[in-house]
Q: What sequence folds into this?
């Protein structure tokens, strides 16, 4: 698993997932692959083809498509069964293809797909908890995006949109098995409330914030 590409923050968060740590790392690795497609594709049509390939890989019942790819092989070796959350992640990332400055509608579709799909897939939440988790995931995704785009206007727009999801994200209780996802939402919350964009990497301050939330819950 160490060879899979995930960010230092994602690796830290996965460590709080307990028995689900492997699943979290695989989901973060998938998210990183999808992000790379958006980052490195200049032609939207080519990007759509690459994203469609992932749709096909994750739903291939023959388990032959993509064989030899490190992530695909690790996914299958772990017996991972992709659900709606994974498909939503792919669709969410697709919203950013070819966009230098995403509008509000695209930002919402991206956030609900990428972030909402990721959090639902991480937790395996029952249907009644999915709206809260999807909103929390959307907050996190918009916060994360704000730290990785160069256009400051779009970054601040993403944070402004994230604020709209806060009431729904705070509408229920977090199950104890969802600690890793709760921490991801928690570290984003402070910046979103303040209206400031995320740091572009795992800073000492962000690490301290993560530890504080893990220890005291806020």
A:
């Amino acid at each position: 698993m160490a060879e899979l590409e995930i960010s230092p923050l994602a690796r830290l968060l996965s460590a709080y997932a307990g028995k689900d740590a492997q699943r979290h790392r695989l989901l973060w690795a998938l998210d990183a692959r999808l992000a790379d497609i958006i980052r490195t594709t200049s032609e939207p049509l080519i990007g759509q083809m690459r994203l469609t390939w992932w749709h096909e890989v994750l739903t291939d019942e023959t388990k032959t498509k993509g064989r030899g790819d490190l992530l695909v092989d690790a996914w299958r070796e772990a017996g991972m069964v992709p659900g709606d959350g994974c498909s939503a992640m792919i669709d969410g990332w697709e919203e950013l293809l070819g966009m230098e400055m995403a509008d509000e509608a695209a930002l919402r579709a991206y956030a609900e797909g990428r972030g909402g799909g990721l959090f639902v897939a991480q937790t395996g939440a029952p249907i009644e908890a999915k709206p809260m988790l999807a909103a929390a995931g959307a907050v996190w995704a918009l916060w994360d995006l704000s730290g990785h785009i160069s256009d400051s206007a779009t970054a601040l727009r993403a944070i402004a949109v994230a604020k709209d999801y806060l009431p729904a994200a705070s509408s229920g209780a977090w199950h104890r098995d969802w600690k890793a996802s709760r921490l991801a939402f928690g570290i984003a919350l402070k910046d979103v409330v303040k209206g400031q964009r995320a740091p572009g990497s795992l800073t000492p301050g962000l690490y301290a914030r993560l530890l504080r939330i893990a220890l005291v819950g806020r």
